[in-house]
User: Fold these one by one.
Assistant:
Number 1:
Amino acid sequence: MSKGEGRKVIVIDMVVEDENSDHESLETQLFFDIMMMVGLKGKERNKEEWANLIFSAGFGNYKIIPILGLRSLIEIYP
């Protein structure tokens, strides 16, 4: 197996959607974002923020697959 071939990192987390979300879903996503900021000094990320984080960590590609209601499966490739 060559370097990076067949390997990936899998993350299950919320990806905040600004578009294609109904009002109630967007409210719930923003509520979780506030909870992360207050409780853990973290934040929920949108697609662009995930891309910036992934590429700045040195990964070459990624795929976001919405699953489990508000959660998404994020596949990150070398």
Number 2:
Amino acid sequence: SWEEDYGLYFFDFEKGTVGKAIYDDPEWNDVDPVALVEHPGPKGRITIVVDSKSTGHLQCLSVYDSDQPDVQRLRPGQVKKVRFVEGIPVSRKEAERLSKLPLGIGQAGPGSTSNGATCFVQTRIIGEAPVEEDGSFYVEIAADTPFFIQLLDEDGLALKTMRGWMWVRRGSRRGCIGCHEDKELAPREWVGMALRKATPAQIGYPVKAPPEERKTLDFRRDIMPIIRARCVGCHSGPSPAGGLDLSPEMVEHEEGTFFNKAYESLLQPVEGKPLSVGGRYVHPGDSRDSPLIWHLWGRQLGEQYDKVPYVRPIVQMPPGKPLSDDERRLFAEWIDLGAQWDNIPGPDPYETLEGR
């Protein structure tokens, strides 16, 4: 587990005991050592890595080619863009700085920290690229960077989120058949519309921009100001509208103070509804199935969890004057990226409770 410290040690096979330590960095887990000794050069193997380049190319034949039922249900042309989301690794030292979150707060699970009451790591958007009518895309993207892919609809909401990590090497060219396609079937012999353009799409943010300039979505910085300005007037006090309290005050728990009332209210779970399909208002990583987003758009966008459905009428919020498209997009992106409280990598700029 992440709480353990893995190092490299000699092992006495005769006694069955661990011997002298070879190397152990206290901030990282050390695994899979490689001996630096002379060895024959590989035969007939040419590296794909070009050290002078900082990017690689990635193409996909069709995002609709999948063995996943929820992707198979997508209509041709429904996917408008793909989003590439970087995962931020956490060193052991950084993990020790973060408060371990008790289960029962929001949608926290084993390993959740004070970064957020979800099971997501901190993330930032590398960029977005168009998907052609035939489902293909072709992009140039930052190399040696772990990322997952999201399929976006016309509103910029995630239709499907990849549940694993991938990357490209410097100067490499990688190709995918589809999104979790059937590995036992060969693809059709064809060239996608995106690849026929010869030049890869330049994703929305500078492809060679430093990581620090990539877009992040943080509840305190990006979401709470909108809630203060447009929502708190009705959703606060002894009897908040709809029973949803979006007050900015911090919430004290026996184990400590982690988040404010607005965040905990939006992330509250529902009895009988597994955290894998979200809570009452927010499904981290899936804005389309989040009732909060249904209210902001004024209509149900995704699917109900039939065993514990959301029963309140779906009416436009805030009433009278809805949020702007840009404001609604912020909420959707925040949820699709994991609904984190603190999604700003590195030292917390809001360390004091008052600053949150």
Number 3:
Amino acid sequence: TAPWFSWTGNALSDLGVSGLTATIFNGGLMATALCMMAFSIGVWELTEGNTVGRTGSGALFLAAVFLFGIGVFPETVEPHHIIFSVAFFVALPVSMFVLSAYMIRSGMKDLGYLSVAAGIVAALIWALEWDGVAIPEAVSALMTSVMSVILGYRMRKWDKVL
């Protein structure tokens, strides 16, 4: 546990600096990144033959690589940590925007528009003033998680039809 942690005054990465909390937090980031990589490969397969879709799935894979880097390089390893962190939080909405273009063009308009909305929230949350960045980090990650769960559910349904 980290009783010192404040959602309004800290970054999520503050949990990855020292002790058992750091091991669990950074290990969780890397495990999540590996799951994200696997999911992005599934999206790559879904978008076969479509350059826009493949670009979006590639951006999602790249975001996963950046997330893994955040876990490997905690805040104490500068400038690596900040580079991976900024790249991750830029790549998330970019991947959602590119994938939304693929979805809309492919007739999955509801999912595409939802992805646009999630990408907008994930990007614009950073425009608000915060003492710490834990809230915008969590909101950005949540938007991507929601989109991934919904898209994953749809992919599973499509697989049964195919």
Number 4:
Amino acid sequence: MNAIKSLNRNKSPDTYGVTAENLIHGGEILASYLQTLLNSSFEFCFIPDVIKFGILTPVFKNKGNKNDAKNYRGITITPTLSKIIETVLKFRINPKIICIQNPLQRGFTKNASPLYCSLIMEEFQRENKDLKKETIFVMLDAKSAFDVVKHSSLIRKLFHMGLTPQEILMIDDLYKNARSSVKLNGEQSKCI
């Protein structure tokens, strides 16, 4: 399975102690069991809650006061099996999204760099300067945008992009009943 082969190696084990290497080196028998499990999950558009659990660890950004929570970012370790489901969904959905994506979209796009966008902006500014036209750029700092995504709006957008009902239900189910606990100084909190 391509989804298993594409997992990032040398990462921390998940809540259940499973690493990408366990699945990558698990052989054909494990892959066939996983495929049966995933096929059932996609057939019924259902992701078991047991694989929607993450452990969040605050990591210091190496700047500022260690006592200030703003100087930490959260790293969440999710179950390896959920990463496989996400990867399968990505393989199915990306070709549809790339076809209708704005050609100027550069961030989070394969084989594209935000630097290309800055080049386009620079050329636009130079051309306007030559034509003696005023140029105004409005910039958006979206560094925290993913923290405040309104999932219902995202799901609606996916529907309008032409995703199948099955794909939309699977994405929606990934986030329903998702839980996390916080791990700090060797102690782990209750689920939130």
